[in-house]
Structure formats: structure tokens, C-alpha cells
Amino acid sequence: MINRVEKLSLLSEMIAFAQIDENIKSIEYKFLSGVAKQLEISKEDFDYLIVNPVTYKHLKSHSERIVQFHRLVLLMNLDKDISRKELVKLHNFGLRMGLSHESINKVLDLMESFPNKIVPPDFLIEIFKVQYN
């Protein structure tokens, strides 16, 4: 289980990703707010993170890193107009988390073949499992 510092770091990272295009859209805010609730982060702390990001904390658990990457993919796909800048940023987040370059690329390539570009969790896990072994 991840601790509070890691949870704040995850959420801060997602907020930074949503802010790539300068402001957080309403749909992104709602999604992030839901993630905050899931992580048991208060609304006050969530709103504070929007203005005051915390330092990135590397997750030890490979499975937690995969879950976080999936959250970032979902967040990116809320916006129907995915820019090259967002793809590069997502790829770099994945690499920084220690995920394999090949797996990240496979997820981004496969994304196009799914409705709404949302890769189902079981596909995502299988992709990373193959590369992890």
C-alpha cells in the first residue's frame, strides 16, 4: 500500500500532466478530483496541490507504477485532441516511473485501436507483464 506522501506525489504528477495545455479543463478537474477521493486526499489538499505541486516520489511497487501510468493514459484521453506534446510527456512520465520503453510504446500504439482510445486494464497489465518478465 502506498503512503500519503506517495499519494500526494501521484496526484501532483497527474495535475502537472493536466496542466500541459496551461489550464485544467472541467472534465479533467472532475477526473482528478475522483482520483483524489479514491486516494483519500481531501478536497482542500487537492486544491492546494493544483497551485503548489509536491516533489515527485518514485513508487517502489511495479504494479502501482502501472496503475499510475493507466491513470495518466485515461487523463490524457479525456481531451479528444491529443497533442504530440502530451504523448511525449506521457512517454517521459512512464520512463521516469521505470516502466519499459517498449511497453509504453505498445500501449500508446494500441490505444488507437480501442473505443475512446482507452486501453482496458487487463490489456495494459498484460503488456507490462510481458516486458517485466
Please supply descriptive tags for the structure shown above.
TerB-like, 133 residues, Tellurite resistance protein TerB
Explained architecture:
The chain has two domains: 1-57; 59-132. It has helices at residues 4-18, 26-38, 43-51, 62-78, 84-96, 101-111, 121-132. Helix 1 (4-18) packs antiparallel against helix 2 (26-38). The chain is built from seven helices and no strands. 68% of the residues lie in helices and 0% in strands. It is mostly helical and 133 residues long. The mean pLDDT is 87. The protein starts with a helix and ends with a helix.
Q: What layout of secondary structure does this protein have?
A:
Elements: H1 4-18, H2 26-38, H3 43-51, H4 62-78, H5 84-96, H6 101-111, H7 121-132
How do you describe this structure in short?
The protein is mainly α.
Report the C-alpha radius of gyration, rounded: 14 Å
**Strand-pairing-aware structural class:** mainly alpha
Number of distinct beta strands? 0
| SSE string, helices as H and strands as E | HHHHHHH
Low-confidence stretches: none
- Tell me the strand percentage band: under 5%
Mean pLDDT over the full residue set: 87
**Number of helices, where a helix is a run of at least 4 consecutive DSSP H or I residues:** 7
Organism: Ichthyenterobacterium magnum
InterPro entries: TerB-like
Protein name: Tellurite resistance protein TerB
